[in-house]
Design brief:
CATH architecture: 3-Layer(aba) Sandwich
Strand content: 5-15%
Strand order of the largest sheet: 1-2-3
Helix content: 25-40%
CATH class: Alpha Beta
Low-confidence stretches: none
CATH superfamily: HUPs
Number of strands: 5
Largest sheet: 3 strands, parallel
Order of helices and strands: EHEHHEHEHEH
Mean pLDDT: 88
Structural class: alpha/beta
């Protein structure tokens, strides 16, 4: 299971999902949980792409076998329901791995937690960098923007 916002899909997302799928071995299935708009607003920023569109795009990506919207109130709800063997954490996700393992154990959930290391080699490997570049770009008068 991989989780994230997946706003403005970029190669970094593809890298994270490909690496997550590899964690389960050759016959593994990758389940992706897409963060709800309310969760993104509370923890990061206002999402650019609405949650249902982000879910649809993520479900179309090659490494993804199933995709779901997360819960607005309990991040462990989907984990309880789907019971993944492994939960992957992206390179840029700021989870306290030990605390997450402890929270899973308290709920009698046995998923292994693995942090995906490394990044896709790109100067635009995060949605925040893409948004910043757009904001910082001086578009000519009368252009698209």
């Amino acid at each position: 299971m991989a989780t994230g916002t997946f706003d403005l899909i970029h190669p970094g997302h593809g890298y994270y999902l490909e690496e997550s799928k590899k964690l389960g071995g050759n016959d593994s299935r990758l389940i992706v949980v897409v963060a709800r708009d309310s969760t993104v607003r509370a923890k990061k920023r206002v999402p650019i792409v609405p949650e249902k569109q982000r879910l649809k795009v993520v479900s179309m990506l090659k490494p993804v076998d199933e995709a779901y919207l997360g819960s607005e109130t309990d991040m462990f709800q989907v984990v309880r329901k789907l019971k993944p063997d492994i939960i992957s954490i992206g390179p840029d996700q700021n989870f306290d791995i030990d605390l997450l393992k402890e929270q899973l154990q308290k709920r009698d959930l046995t998923a292994e937690v693995v942090k995906v290391e490394g990044y896709f080699d790109s100067d635009l490997d995060s949605t925040c960098k893409i948004i910043k570049k757009i904001k910082d770009t001086d578009f000519p008068s009368g252009s698209f923007f």
